[in-house]
Amino acid sequence: MPDVSIQSPDGSFGAYLAAPASGKGPAMIIIQEIFGVNANLRAIADKYAAAGYFAIAPDLFWRQEPGVQITDQTEAEWQKAFQLYQGFNEVKGVEDLATTLSFIRQYPGVTGKVGCVGFCLGGKLAYLMATRTDIDASVSYYGVGIDKDIGEVSAITKPLLLHIAGQDGFVPPDAQNAIKEAVAGNFLVEVHVYPERDHAFTRIGGKHYHDGDAQLAHGRSAEFLAKHLG
């Protein structure tokens, strides 16, 4: 399906939109890593569409460089990705996601609830969507920097699923423990830790990809979303 344009108070930005074959159903916002709305992220959106969701992946780097689509396969791309990450305004990013949430809720055919799923940078933003918006359910894969805003846990009013890589090079043990302690006892938050996995263990083609735990995590996400968006 062609990209769509979303109007925000600061200008318009693009998003990839994949629709379910039925033409109706709930929706998912697919939140990017530091590589932009690349082929891998679009493939994830397509899988959600095949599962019956409208899947929309907004371009969150548009203020710096619209249309970023890079991979994790070369050093030069990694350097560019980190530059974009360092220049990223997290507050504005969440605002763009909230705008995307409003857009997709009104999109023709969207008849159910709306959730989000994010990876890496997107994993942090999925957490912030749970604390700062009224999105119906959020899934975070190995979010980087959640511990810095862990004080927002009390603002969560809708279900949140956290996938944590136990050997995550970007989320050290102290940060992981802070997250787990903060959400302990919160019935809205479900946490799964993958003790032997490193960051981005579900990124197909990535250095740390692990098929077994990737499929386990995706299965848990599917069950969680079916429960809360169905």
Automatic annotation (TrEMBL):
Gene3D superfamilies: alpha/beta hydrolase
MF terms in GO: hydrolase activity
A Pfam family recorded for this sequence: DLH
Dienelactone hydrolase domain location: 13-228
Protein name from the UniProt record: Carboxymethylenebutenolidase
Organism per entry: Niveispirillum cyanobacteriorum
